[in-house]
## 1
Amino acid sequence: MDIVVCVKTNPDLQMVRVKDRVAVTEAVPYKIGDLEKNALQAAVDLRAAAGGKVTALCLAVGNRKAAEDVKVALAMGADEAVVIDDPALAAPDQAAVATALAAAVKKIGACDLLLFGEGSTDNYSGQVGARVAEILGLPQIGYARKVEAVGGAVRCERSMDDMLETLEAPLPAVVTVVSEINEPTIPGLMQIMKAKSKPLQVWSLADLGLDAAQLAPTREIVSNLAEEQDRKHILFDGSAAEQADAFVNALIKEGVLGR
Amino acid sequence: MEQVECIVVGGGLAGLSAAYGLASAGAEVMVLERGDYSGAKNVTGGRLYVKPIRRFYPELWDEAPYERPVARELVTMMAGGAHTTVEIASDRFTAGQPQSYTVLRARLDQWLAEKVGEKGAMVVPNMKVDELLRKDGKVTGIRAGEDEIGAQVVIVAEGVLRLLSSKAGLTSEPQARHHAIGYKEVIELPAGVIEDRWRLNPGEGAAHLFMGDCTKGMMGGAFLYTNKESISLGMVVGMDDMRRRRDGSESWQLLDEFKELPQIKPLVAGGTVAEYSAHSIPEGGISQVPKLAGDGYVVAGDTAGLSLNALVTVRGMDFAIASGYFAAQAVLKAKEAGDFSAAGLASYEASLRDSFVLRDLETARSIPNVMENPRLFTHYPQAIGRLLESVYTIDDQPQAGIVKKAWRGVRRDFMSVATVKDAWSMRKI
Amino acid sequence: MAAVLVYSEKVETARELVAGGKELGAALGLGVSAVALGPGAGAAASELAAAGADTVYVSEDAAFEGWPADAVAAGLAQIAELAGASVVLVGSTRRGKETAPRLAQKLGAGCVSDVNSLVAEGGDLVAGRYAFGGATVAREKLGTAVKVFAVMPKTFSAEGASAGAGAVETPTLDVSSSVKVVDRRAKEGEHVNLDAAPRIVGIGRGFNAREDLALGDQLAAALEAVVGCTKSLADFEWLGEDRIIGLSGAKTAPDLYLSVGVSGQIQHTVGVAGAKLIAAVNKDKEAPIFAMADYGIVGDLYEVVPALVERLKSV
Ligand SMILES: Cc1cc2nc3c(=O)[nH]c(=O)nc-3n(C[C@H](O)[C@H](O)[C@H](O)COP(=O)(O)OP(=O)(O)OC[C@H]3O[C@@H](n4cnc5c(N)ncnc54)[C@H](O)[C@@H]3O)c2cc1C
Ligand SMILES: Cc1cc2nc3c(=O)[nH]c(=O)nc-3n(C[C@H](O)[C@H](O)[C@H](O)COP(=O)(O)OP(=O)(O)OC[C@H]3O[C@@H](n4cnc5c(N)ncnc54)[C@H](O)[C@@H]3O)c2cc1C
Ligand SMILES: Nc1ncnc2c1ncn2[C@@H]1O[C@H](COP(=O)(O)O)[C@@H](O)[C@H]1O
């Protein structure tokens, strides 16, 4: 089973700081999103069961070093990687990302299963997988927490708002995964070294037969600011009992406890 | 076993500097760094003396991500509530190519790691080396997790703790007595506020050191460096002194108490703490420098004990970068000769001896002993404070003449057998 | 007449969207139409018509059973055409969230998902949603002729909905799904509602083992609070998904949120930003949770929680 996993590299959110209500991403390193690592792991596990090839596909968004950062996917077990990197795609919206990814999937050719994260780390919009499915006319299963190959189909378990479901889609299909699906393995040094010699291609929009005008954003970000939070930041001192006492006293004073 | 030419253990400044030199010359290099990225957990007070290292990799230093060139130097003696501040400002600190800059390691190291990558080295973050492999006394490679990789030479730049190198017998285990512990906070403040508070021209910076009461008489002091939009505020305390303290207070509380002092509070007011870190510093001086190279390895930076604390100047980063440079040159020489034995790598130590690195450490040979003198951190700050305080004090009593006041203080505080001995021991530093 | 078209497979959410759609429609000069899909959707349709939708399109086509994204997106696209919809509001439940972008792609529309505020400003709609894991709120406008918004449940209130008597239409739709349902069952276990809880004890990976969660329960009992958790504990299946607080769980606004063994990653804390008081127990002084807490106890939860339980006995 040939699998394409769409991986996005995002600024490491644990290092993004809010300053004057604006998220500062300058000098923050990028890494592949957690959910995409789950998707990659799922692909590697499926390959172990069903054979085939795993391709990691990334569209660089605001990341100068995407080709470097994507090597983690190769170390995690992808057989090859493709990075779409084009200056015209500095701040694409989800439709543009999906259009470019779908074009790249076609160019990659063999693809029985397309895996996505349930959402990307910084956007978490959950749009790209569904849009790619529509563009390519494929069935989609979202929020999979278990994926297996059965015959010519993919079978997924998922937990929806109040139902547990087991669904089956004929291949080729699009599946998006949630974090429960697995615990991604951290690649060892040998895997990282081997990744160095795995194929990694960088494509421009022209390589995909697309031009920037087709991918112009349809979305305008009016503002993007942190909400103001005004907290007291009081840390207690002393033993557990002393701290507990001071804390409970504070709650009483606040009127949360007692009266 | 998979083989590479050179493995660098530790992607701090020493390791990256070595890797940069090696990769620039086309050697095959792999840098293994335990942290999420280079600089993630590396701690520095904040000032890089660039002058000594400009001649190594000259293309780098004009574009390095500095915070501010240091234009004002301030030293404060604190004792018994009296603070005496001396300011040294000199156009020469910033004229032409400034002598020192404040830096933030997260930025500096990451930037250097990128440069190293551009030169073709493989920089692997999130990779902890677990063991240095040895065979017949020769270092043959490393083990990380399950994986063993062989190398013709391993450059050990694992920082101050020497966990790997001491286990492999390349260095001795670090001793508390030869180390200090540093705590540091990065506190964000707007650039304009920083420039107002420290009376700086736009873009310029200040370095402010504190001695005396701030460490409660323990060996050490506090420092404050201004960055672009933050200040680095921290404290360095002798590890042995810290351990001997038995009042149960946590070491980081010292820094919290320091920040609450009426003289310090207005300096940090309105700032938000963006980062907190703690780290040890080698202070053993040249007597604690291990064998610098052996069969199949060299040690560099803090691992090699190359750090100098001369009261008002703390240097380690420039030494780390210089030692990395010389390590690379020595390895390249060894590569040319096809001899990675101790003899083949011997030019490393020779060039360190010829350079400021071991020379400055040699000059400062007796500093560690002087620093162990507790009077330095209790008696003298008090004496200076008392002296100036008395001269500046006007109370409701008839005043003694100013010279008399001062002389009384000098006689009491500076003319004893102990102080004469101290003066003798300090003559060399 | 051009319309705001609203849809959710959850009737409650659909009613909210009808109410919200009417408000926005009034500002934009648009009517409101609603959609109900799936076997048994007729009942929902009458409810929506009564809630103020001008027209309700209903289809009980078997392809809508279980609301598969491909079929629902196709059905909605056809109805959007019929209704002349320029704005489509889809309830951002999991099903809605996977359907809305597919629908948008079909309609050549821009789409904003997880919308938690939607307002008309100067003849345009501005949607608010969390970005950077919840660290910021992005306000976005769409420039396409048709606009799709996946709107979080409870963004609008169904209460103010005017009674109405809209028309119900049953269009014939060309829909099918290639996704086959192998098994579908209701989730078991009690359902907790964190949204309304006045006090919440939020627990995280600081708890070493599942058995230890009893400590959290004791603390919650002593505080008369409900237990919520981080996503990690739900991933371990130590607690149910409905206890997750944060970006992919509940957004709560209790009087007191006390976290225990929670690091305070932004994806979690965004779910308690509305709390009146935030308190935290964590052994790491540097844990990000303290940066947004009113009260902090730095200590081992295995010592602190029993001490708290003990102290609370005498309140
Ligand atoms: C509080 C404080 C203030 C200071 N102030 C100054 C100053 O103002 N100016 C100055 O010049 N110097 C200062 N120094 C000293 C200076 O920071 C050090 O000398 C310098 O960082 C040494 O660099 P290094 O590369 O040798 O070590 P480090 O920067 O410590 O780098 C070692 C690297 O090795 C990695 N590592 C360790 N073990 C492993 C392993 N097993 N596997 C993989 N990677 C590993 C670490 O993660 C780290 O990145 C200060 C130090 C402290 C603590
Ligand atoms: C797209 C996306 C969406 C997400 N949505 C959510 C969401 O909705 N909700 C959510 O919660 N998470 C969410 N996450 C995950 C989130 O990023 C964090 O991984 C998660 O919240 C961390 O959970 P934690 O605090 O329990 O664990 P950790 O981050 O591992 O923290 C454990 C904490 O416990 C402390 N600790 C350990 N032992 C003790 C002890 N004995 N006593 C006291 N303290 C102790 C530690 O110091 C640490 O701070 C999401 C992630 C992504 C990528
Ligand atoms: N730039 C990108 N490159 C590759 N894959 C992406 C990109 N953006 C989004 N994806 C994929 O689409 C999923 C959902 O992203 P989003 O719609 O941004 O929440 C992610 O988890 C990825 O699998």
## 2
Amino acid sequence: MKRISVLAVGLLLHVGASAEAHRLDEYLQATRLDISRNRVVVELDLTPGVLVASQIFATIDSDGDGRVSPTEIEDYARRVLRDLSLRVDDRPCALTLTRAESPSWDEIRDGEGTIHLEAFADTPLARGVHRIRYANMHESASGVFLVNALKPSTDALVIRAQRRDVQQRVIDLDVDVGTSFDAATWWVIPIAGLGALLMRRRRTPTASSP
Amino acid sequence: MSAFKVGAGLMVLGLGALAPVTEQRTPAATGATARGVAAATAFLNTLDARQRAKATLPLNNTTRTVWSNLPTGVTMQVGATERNGLKLGDMTPPQQQAALALVAAVLSRDGYQKVLNIVGADQRLEETTAPTRAAGNRTRFGRAEFYLAILGAPSATDRWMVQFGGHHLAINVTFSGRESVLTPTHTGAQPATFTLNGETIRPLGRENDEAFALMNALDAAQQKQALLDYQVRNLVLGPGEDGKVIQPEGIRASALSAKQRGMLIDLIREWVTIVDDEAAAARMKEIEANLGETYFAWAGSTTNGKAAYFRVQGPTLLIEYAPQGAGNAPTTDHIHTIYRDPTNDYGSRLVSR
């Protein structure tokens, strides 16, 4: 508690210069979803505003030494992951943490420090249309959210529709796996049609003149 | 804006030595590359050995990504703690003049003016925030904190790059032979409107006004397609997000009338024409060829003067314009933008030719 108070006092002294330039009591949380046939990767960037910085930092810096150790940021990342939800066709998918990086307290205090997290879930997607739902409920009172799907790197996977709530805490994606015609198919159809037409003409006897 | 007013304004901003720079562009030059090589060589010749070592770097996949919207004193999105190059504050006035002559040489006249206006806004931000800055706060704004870097050796044939940036600015121009590429580039402004010698300066004013004009030229059904039904409070693919492409949203340009498409082209041109005229013309030709597959998306108010986010996204283009929360709600006085070509950032396509 004493540590939080010291941080808060320091912060009040600091806010004057930062307030004009930066977010205040917002906790910016930007997610990008990279969807492939077998996996969904979640990239999450977390940027606390100046007025929530001490509160967020205190939850990360569990030993109160003013620094973020690799263990502390990993613990925090796992807590964040518990507030995230990923569902494929209404089935929950467990997220595995692969990256957790924190800036220094100085940067967090200035409202410019961004915590980077990355996690993935194995989500084998069979041929067909699937509903993927991602929700982020971390610090929802102060959270300002962005969530976007990256364009799939293969034509065999197409995002047909995306819907979000107004705050961008939740996104629903309709993902079509392998049911759409790819570019090659569009060539095959007219060529096959032309071939069939030629075959038919060859078999049809020519009408004789009267 | 008259040359006199620009010059007078720059004097007030402390950039007086830079005022004549726009007049120093050499009309007889054979292209931006030649002008850039000459200006880069002239700039390097003004530096001592220590400065030259700081201003020049090898060009590789790591060095070229070191740029940001953030002010000095803050770790960038890519993890670097300082921008590439030598900052204006560590240069003598003649060196500053040579530095900005290089920036002018690789940009269009309007693009260079936009850069000066962004620097001017940041100088104003420094003047208004510095008096209340706490001891120990390492964040710095202002013209002294803008860095110039030359990546690779200036060459008429080989690949090299010019970076000029600071808070709310990251100009990345990659050269390969006669061709030059501006993407990725970040522009921003805070304050987005300020007064200088009685004249109102809006570094990103045309971008804002042309976007609102386009949105209000759409009929109700078109607006419905363009409008995102959720809040967008920041850039999606800002600094540090190289190589990513998001799923496009909004209205396709193929659903716009000829007049509306013209307005969209004019809006896109605000970013494209920052670079030299020849490169901008080639780039616009490419963008217009793909216009039918280009999307225009909007979030926020359609009343000019209120905050709104917009995005233009095509096969070779991404532009985002995002009012920022300075305080809490998004404000029209703090803007971030990004301009990318997912197929040719840092001139990647030029190398494969």
